[in-house]
Design goal:
Radius of gyration: 36 Å
Shape: rod-shaped
Number of domains: 2
Mean pLDDT: 89
Strand content: under 5%
Low-confidence stretches: none
Number of strands: 0
Number of helices: 5
Largest sheet: none
Length: 121
């Protein structure tokens, strides 16, 4: 009787460990699915491949799944917006600089008159 209970506990423990490993390896896929990741199928397949590669890929899958956010995508849009603002500022400064250069050229092209001596002398 006691050996049957021990065998039942052993089978239960093995099944729980097996299910736990599978459930843990689905975490990156669940994160990707929740975030509507464009590569969620690839992350899911790579999670299964990670089971056979001694879990080497799993941390990278976690990082890959968490990089994407639906509200900002991969995060490059924010960088592009900053670069667009900087480009606009540079264009504005170039226009201002060319206006200053044309004013300077106009001032330099004027004939210079020597300072007139005071008339009372």
């Amino acid at each position: 009787m006691l050996t049957n209970v021990a065998l039942g506990l052993l089978i239960f423990a093995v099944l729980m460990i097996f299910y736990g490993v599978i459930a843990i390896h689905d975490i990156p896929y669940l994160i990707a699915k929740k975030r509507n990741h464009p590569h969620q199928d690839a992350i899911h397949v790579a999670g299964w491949v990670s089971l056979f590669t001694l879990h080497v890929l799993w941390p990278f899958l976690w990082i890959w799944a968490t990089l994407y956010r639906p509200e900002r995508g991969w995060g490059f849009k924010q960088i592009e917006a900053e670069q667009a603002r900087e480009r606009d500022e540079i264009d504005r400064l170039r226009v201002e600089l060319s206006a200053m250069q044309s004013r300077l050229a106009a001032l330099e092209s004027r004939p210079t008159q020597p300072p007139s001596a005071p008339q009372g002398e």
